[in-house]
Amino acid sequence: MSIQLYNTLTRKKEKLEPLEPGKIRMYVCGPTVYNHIHIGNARAFLVFDVIRRYLEYRGYDVTYVQNFTDVDDKLIRTAEDMGKTVPEVADQFIASYQEDTEALGVKKADVHPRVTEHIDEIISFIKQLVDKGVAYEVDGDVYFDTEKFPEYGKLSHQNIDELKAGARIDVNEKKKNPLDFALWKKAKPGEIAWDSPWGKGRPGWHIECSAMSMKYLGESFDIHAGGTDLCFPHHENEIAQSESLTEKPMARYWLHNGFLNINNEKMSKSLGNFLTAKDLIQQYSPQLIRFFMLTAHYRHPINFSEELLEQAEKGRERITNVIENLEHRKQASLDGELDVDEQKKIEKAREKFIAEMDDDFNTPNAITVIFELVKDANHYLRRPQVNRQTIQAYLDMIHELTGVLGLEFNENKDEALLDEEIEKLIEERTEARIQKNYARADEIRDLLKSKGIVLEDTPQGVRWRRET
Ligand code: AMP
Ligand code: ZN
C-alpha cells in the first residue's frame, strides 16, 4: 500500500514517490503577520500539520518549512496605523501566531524563515533572473517577464491569453505585460527598505517563497502546500521564478486546502467576515476546534457555524467517554489473556485508518474508523468479564490513531476506584467464594488492597472502607 495524494499540477491523485527514498521535504506558505490569524488561516496550518504528522507516522523523515511574511504593504500600513515599526508589528503577530497554533496542537516547523532575514538570498535570486533575461528593471522596480516562461499557467490550468485578458484590469504602465509581477519594489520615502542593485526597496511577495524554499529544501523538493487562493497567482509565480532559474521542477506535488466558509463565503480579512482563532479559543476548547476542522476533507470547503462546532462536540465526547470508561474499568479489572477476537478488531482499525489516510489524507473517514473502534470498545465493556490487557489494547489503539491526527483527550488521571466498581468486585468475590474459587477471591482482595480498599468480613456480609 502506498500514499496517494491529489496533485493540483496534474489534477490527479498520484502515488507519493519522494525524491529521496524515506524523506519528504515540504514547504507550506505561512502567514503574513500583520494581524491575528483567523480560523480560515488556522485551517490551512492545521490540515498541513496533520499531513506532516501522518507522513511521519508512515515512517518518513519529514523536513517541514513554513515562512513568515514579515514585510509587505499590509505590514507597512499596519505599522503606520499602530505607530510602530514594521519589525515590531511582525514580532507581535508572530508571537500571536505561535500562541494560537500551539493551542491548536500545530507542531512547529523545522524552520520558520522570515523574509527580512533572507534579503541577501532574495536579491541574489532576482539578480540571476535579470542576468538570465527573464526579469527586467524599470525605475527601481524589477518585474518577472511572464512571456519568457511558456509554461506560465500550468499549475492553475489557465492559458496565457485568458490570463492576460483577466489581468488587463490591473494596468501598470511600467510592466511590459499585464501578467508580469514584481520581484522587487522600489521604496517610497520613509518606508522600510534594503539596498539592492536596483536601489532601495523590498522584495515582492512571490519571490520570498522561491528563495527561502530553495535555501532550506533545495532546487526541487517534494510537497508545496497552501490554501486554494494561493494557487494563482502566488504559486504559479513561484513556479515561474524557480523553474526559470533552475530549469528543474520546483516541487513534485502541489497541495491546496479548501476554504473555511462562513455563510458560504470565504472567511477573509479583506471581506471582514472573520473570526480570529484567539476569539474562538476563548469560547471553545482548541482541541474541539481541531477535531471540527478534521471532520471535513482538507480539499473540500468547510462551513463554520457554532451549531456545527457543537455537533462536533458530541462526536468528541463519544471518544472522551469511552477513554474514561476504559480507564475506570481497567482499574477494576484483573490481568488476563489478550482476547484474540478483540485484538483482531483492534488491529483491523489501524489497517482501515491507514487505508483512509493513504487515500489523499481522508480525515473524515479516518475519524469514522475511530468511531467504529469506539463502538467495539463499548461492546467489549458491556461484557461481565473483561481483562486489563484487552482494555489496554483498546486504549492504546484509540490513543495511537487519535494521536496521529494530533487529537488529545483528557485522560481521567484519577486512578481511584468508584464505589460502584468496588461493589461490583466485592460481589464477584462473594460469588467466587461460593463457587469455591478461592484463588480468584484472593486475587480480588489483593487488587482492592492495592487500591487502598480494605475488606472486612462481617456476619452481615462484606463491608469495605478506604484506607486513610
Ligand atoms: P495569509 O496570511 O492570508 O497569506 O494566509 C495564510 C494561509 O491561510 C494561506 O495558506 C491561505 O491560503 C490560507 N487561507 C486564508 N483564508 C482561508 C480560508 N478562509 N480558508 C482556508 N484557508 C485560508
Ligand atoms: Zn508562498
Give a description of the structure.
The protein is an alpha/beta fold. The chain is built from 15 helices and 15 strands. Strands 4-3-9-10 form a four-stranded parallel beta sheet, with helices on both faces. A hairpin with a 2-residue loop joins strand 14 and strand 15 (461-466). The two termini are 56 Å apart. The mean pLDDT is 94. The site of zinc ion has 3 residues, from loops.
At a glance:
With 468 residues, the chain is an alpha/beta fold. It is built from 15 helices and 15 strands. Helix 9 crosses helix 10 and helix 10 (306-331) packs parallel to helix 12 (363-381).
Task: Spell out the blueprint of helices and strands.
Layout: E1 4-7, E2 12-15, E3 23-28, H1 39-57, E4 61-66, H2 73-82, H3 86-103, H4 119-131, E5 135-138, E6 141-144, H5 160-167, E7 181-186, E8 201-203, H6 205-217, E9 221-227, H7 231-246, E10 251-257, E11 260-262, E12 265-266, H8 277-283, H9 286-294, E13 302-303, H10 306-331, H11 340-358, H12 363-381, H13 388-404, H14 419-434, H15 438-450, E14 453-458, E15 461-466
Parallel strand pairs: 3-4, 3-9, 9-10, 11-13
Antiparallel strand pairs: 1-2, 5-6, 6-7, 7-8, 11-12, 14-15
Helix pairs in contact: 2-3, 4-6, 6-7, 9-10, 10-12, 10-13, 11-12, 11-13, 12-13, 14-15
The structure holds adenosine monophosphate (AMP) and zinc ion (ZN).
